[in-house]
Amino acid sequence: GNSVTQMEGPVTLSEEAFLTINCTYTATGYPSLFWYVQYPGEGLQLLLKATKADDKGSNKGFEATYRKETTSFHLEKGSVQVSDSAVYFCALSGGGTSYGKLTFGQGTILTVHP
Amino acid sequence: NAGVTQTPKFQVLKTGQSMTLQCAQDMNHEYMSWYRQDPGMGLRLIHYSVGAGITDQGEVPNGYNVSRSTTEDFPLRLLSAAPSQTSVYFCASKQTGGAETQYFGPGTRLLVL
Asked: What is the pLDDT of residues A26-38, one digit of tens each?
């Protein structure tokens, strides 16, 4: 079945540091890949997505590239801010019998200090 | 648009009690789903629906029932609550299509004693 593995957290950074959160996946066919973010006390909201190999999703300074050869979708940001402190989830949506269903990684807690 | 709304925000139950978690969306989305969020486990799919009158099981359906009588509403029922159902529950909706963005509600925090 489908699965998503995220790097172990939590991650603690100083403001303006570079961020990478690793995400790898296992899926049949050609899944769509997503990063969702959850701010404290809120639900999840889409941060970015990519629907085919070599696509790059980007939003709010965050980027991730769909790498089919390494089955990865790593999240990066060049300069984090305190307001980026949140939980980040990598997820995939497969085709076939898993149509529309999201499979999530375990989440990575990011804390950014001034 | 209100988006996806959930009630209640927080609930405490005793073991064996029943309750219904409400979910509604005003975006005319066909696809709706329920997830539970537990520490270190991400979100896991409980039940989903691809349209009114159609529901199916997700990864962790035991102990939960759903129905979909309208496009807008997708309630989740716990028939006999157990401590293992202590969790945060999220409802989500989206347009049909595998790559479409899912929109999540604010969540219901449930504590079963």
From this structure: 988 888 999 999 9
